[in-house]
Amino acid sequence: MAMTPQNDQEAQQQLFTDTLLKLQIHAALAKENSHHNKSPLPLLAQSCSLLDNLPSATTTTWTPTQRTLIDALKIDAWMALADGCIQANDLIQAEASLQHLATLQDAAAGPFSWRVQKANKNNHNRRNKTVVSSDSSSNDTTATSSLSPGPTEEHRQAVAGLIQTWCKLCQVYTDMGKSDMANNFHKRMQKMTDLLQDPVLSSTTVAATTP
């Protein structure tokens, strides 16, 4: 029997409610395990898996607020797992968790996104290879740049979290004896911190100033 649109919407809203309930249960059990000197990592990992595996086909009727909440909870879940792995001195799992966390935070960073910056820089460099002598072309470029939206406060908060995650990765790689990787993320931290401190930063200048 085919599901009606109303039933489908009710099922999707029930999935949202059930997901929040399961996360609360996992958090409570993980906290209890910690109090009894048991590892909370399996439960923390379950929360991450639950959020990562939410079927997109069954979340089409979620509101933007619901989606934003789930995205934030996903970051919180992976942060808790990463911190738990660090505390347990499980460096391999800590590295994997932090890398996944960084990917989520980078996606939430908007124009600050490291991947977006690299892509924009490549496009910027390709444009610079083309010599443009027309004044009208130059004016068009200036007009386009001035209309580029700048980062929001949410983007800045996301990238601040990303910098903290990179800092943890630096320490993990240092503890693993991977100094090259640690130095790489340390450089990223410095560049991103400089961008955060620029009060007139726009998405256009992010692309242009990132090495």
UniProtKB/TrEMBL annotation:
It comes from the Eukaryota. Residues 122-155 are annotated as: Disordered. Residues 130-148 have a biased composition (Low complexity). This is Uncharacterized protein. It comes from Linnemannia hyalina. The lineage of its organism: Eukaryota, Fungi, Fungi incertae sedis, Mucoromycota, Mortierellomycotina.
